[in-house]
Design a protein that fits this description.
This protein has 566 residues and is an alpha/beta fold. The chain contains 22 helices and 15 strands.
Length: 566
């Protein structure tokens, strides 16, 4: 069964009704026979002006060669609502056509939520297309920081929205286990290891080394387990042994931290495999064969400027080692050409904005399509506590680690807060608010609405009252403004999920959850559930159950708990 989206269905009906009315008006001579232009059908900000609105009269003035009010009037006079969700239409403002659904539509919304249950909110929008979401992909030389925490929440929730909208989704972590950063990692560990046995004054730490306490801790762990055994080896052997110990240790710690953050990947892809399987070499060969590579100053360059980049890029350095960019091209070639993803979405920090055009252009250069590569650029996070910038530790040497955050802020709050703003917006993360258990904390506020519904059901069950099947006629008893507003927002969940997937922005889901909780609290205040009118009581119980389902499904998409009591 294809999940039902009554907002999408109603929107499609508005389009069909308008087109049919235009054709009818043209036959009667009140509109000229021309091809109608594209027009928008939207939900008005103020639903007192209608449940849906179309701007056909405004955008059609040129095509029809008539003023918008006259076009709107001609369409309105020829609308036929028989067999549709709608009962009437009217003209507003400079020519908007507003449409009002009948009360049966609201009853159908509740019936749809009831029937679909945990599937409510899902759509077939993605049509099974293969999508990879690559996110976090933190450097394994140290702990994950706040940027990784935000990217993890955004990427995982986006993947959830894509799955719920009908895509086949793979979550992937790219492990940078090769290249310059690994060399620096080895040199840093070596210096700290030697300092343990020879003293810090005797061993100079490299200026560009990794300064964090985590490097000291790793070196100490190796020394504790293996003693001074490395002192007898060459410098290269020392570094390799420390990297072979430190890298798996750090990657295992990343997996533990991400698991605590409720992120589980389908694939952990190692950069080193691109060299082992010859794919980097293959990419260099493809670009060379196409005449898109040239030698200069002992290095091999790619003609990136011919594909939208600001300048050409080095593929092979003077020392014969491939660059990170060469590996990145190979990695994305693997995603598209070898694994067959229809779309690849990368969650990157905003400081990578200059790499977007380069990588998209490189996909075109190797015979693929850069248009299939989507990049979500994410702005920085600033931790705040009691209104002041806050730094929790210096474990990584540069920024606060994800594991530190999760020690004082629940994963529920972290995931919710990081998705409250669009990825492209810089954000302040309020540690004080995130740790509060009050209605001022938005995730607590949403969870409390869910728990309140559970409490209502439990109290009624104690009085011997249980929900039963409710007829459409009984659902039509729900007519209070607070009831209608709540049902209207319930209907919008499938569209919110599809929008989050299409726009690659899951922040709409947190706004939806807050809105739904707010509307439920208003309904609860205005409309008593336990009333003497049994059919009305059962209809309101059904509204409570449907709201609980929508809240649960929305929170589940974000991997946030829905507690039954608080």
């Amino acid at each position: 069964m294809i999940p039902k989206d009554l907002v999408r269905d109603a929107t499609a009906q508005v389009r069909a009704l308008v087109i049919a009315a235009i054709e009818k008006a043209a036959k009667h001579g009140s509109l000229p026979e021309v091809q109608p232009p594209e027009f928008a059908v939207e939900i008005p900000g103020d639903t007192a002006h209608g449940d849906f609105a179309a701007n056909i009269a405004l955008v059609g003035a040129k095509a029809f060669r008539m003023p918008p009010p006259k076009i709107a009037q001609a369409i309105l006079e020829n609308l036929d609502f028989d067999g549709s969700f709608f009962e009437r239409g009217e003209i507003a403002g400079p020519g908007f056509l507003n449409f009002f659904v009948g009360r049966e539509w609201f009853a159908q919304v509740l019936q749809s939520v009831t029937t679909l249950g945990t599937d409510y909110g899902k759509t077939d929008h993605g049509a099974g297309k293969k999508v990879m979401v690559e996110f976090v992909s933190a450097n394994p030389t140290g702990p994950m920081h706040m940027g990784n925490a935000r990217g993890g929440a955004i990427g995982d929730c986006l993947a959830g929205a894509l799955e719920a909208s009908g895509h086949s989704v793979t979550r992937e972590f790219y492990v940078n286990d090769a290249g310059n950063q690994i060399e620096k990692f080895g040199i840093s560990l070596q210096a700290r290891y030697l300092q343990i046995f020879k003293g810090e004054e005797a061993v100079t730490f490299p200026e560009d080394g990794y300064q964090g306490e985590d490097i000291k801790e790793l070196a100490q762990r190796y020394a504790d387990e293996h003693g001074d055994s490395l002192l007898a080896l060459s410098e290269e052997q020392q570094r390799q042994a420390l990297v072979d110990f430190g890298l798996p240790t750090n990657i295992a710690a990343m997996e533990r931290d991400l698991d605590a953050y409720r992120i589980n990947y389908d694939v952990w892809f190692r950069e080193s495999t691109l060299y082992k399987n010859g794919l980097v070499e293959k990419i260099v060969g493809i670009l060379t064969e196409k005449g898109l590579a040239y030698e200069k100053e002992g290095a091999l360059w790619y003609k990136a400027s011919e594909f939208g980049a600001e300048k050409d890029e080095v593929l092979i350095r003077q020392n014969g080692n491939p660059t990170y960019f060469a590996a990145d091209i190979a990695y994305h070639y693997d995603k598209f050409a070898l694994r067959g993803f229809d779309t690849v979405i990368n969650i990157w920090g905003a400081d990578h904005h200059g790499h977007v055009a380069r990588l998209k252009g490189a996909m075109d250069a190797v015979g693929l399509s850069g248009d299939k590569l989507e990049i979500v650029l994410m702005q920085l996070v600033r931790l705040m506590k009691d209104g002041e910038p806050y730094r929790m530790s210096k474990r990584s040497g540069h920024s606060t680690a994800l594991r530190d955050l999760l020690e004082i802020v629940p994963a529920d709050a972290a995931r919710f807060f990081f998705n409250m703003q669009q990825p492209g917006s810089a954000m302040d993360f309020d540690l004080t608010l995130a740790a509060e258990q009050t209605s001022q904390n938005p995730v607590f506020y949403v969870q409390y609405a869910y728990a309140r519904i559970c409490s209502i059901l439990k109290k009624l069950a104690g009085d011997g009252i249980s929900p039963r099947d409710v007829t459409q006629q009984e659902l039509l008893l729900l007519s209070a403004p607070e009831e209608i507003a709540l049902i209207r927002r319930l209907a919008q969940l499938p569209g919110e999920v599809a929008t989050a997937a299409t726009r690659m922005d899951p922040s709409g889901l947190t706004r939806y959850a807050i809105d739904l909780a707010t509307l439920f609290h208003k309904f609860y205040t205005a409309c008593r559930v336990s009333v003497d009118n049994e059919p009305l009581m059962q209809a309101r119980l059904r509204l409570c159950l449907c709201t609980r389902t929508a809240l649960s499904n929305t929170l589940a998409l974000m991997k946030i708990d829905a507690p039954e009591s608080m």
